[in-house]
Design goal:
mainly alpha; 2 strands
Length: 96
C-alpha cells in the first residue's frame, strides 16, 4: 500500500515497513528500515505542521494525513518491537 499525494511531504510505503524485509544487500535491516521509515514519517509530519504554521499555503488536509500517517507508523513500530521482545523472551526461557 503506497500512500502518496501528501503534497511536498512525499510518500511512505507502510506495506514495506510492515513486511520488515531486508533491502538488497542489507543484512537483517528489517527493523532498522522500519525505524528509518518512522523517522521519515516524523520529518514529513513536522515539515507539514511547520508549513501550516508559517502560512506556506499547505492544505490542512495534507497536514492531517501526514500527522495520522506518522501516528500509524509509530504504532506499527511499537507493535513490532513488542513482538520482537516477546520472541526474545520466549527464546530466553527455552531450556537447552
Amino acid at each position: 500500500m503506497n500512500i502518496s499525494g501528501l503534497g511536498a511531504n512525499g510518500a511512505i510505503d507502510l506495506g514495506s515497513l510492515a513486511s520488515g524485509g531486508a533491502v538488497d544487500g542489507d543484512q537483517g535491516g528489517g527493523f532498522g528500515q522500519l525505524l528509518d521509515g518512522l523517522n521519515d514519517a516524523a520529518v514529513a509530519a513536522d515539515q507539514a505542521v511547520t508549513d501550516v504554521a508559517v502560512g506556506a499555503g499547505t492544505d490542512l488536509h495534507d497536514v492531517t494525513l501526514a500527522v495520522e500517517l506518522e501516528s500509524l507508523a509509530f504504532d506499527l513500530a511499537v507493535q513490532i518491537r513488542n513482538r520482537l521482545v516477546d520472541a526474545y523472551q520466549e527464546v530466553f526461557r527455552m531450556q537447552i
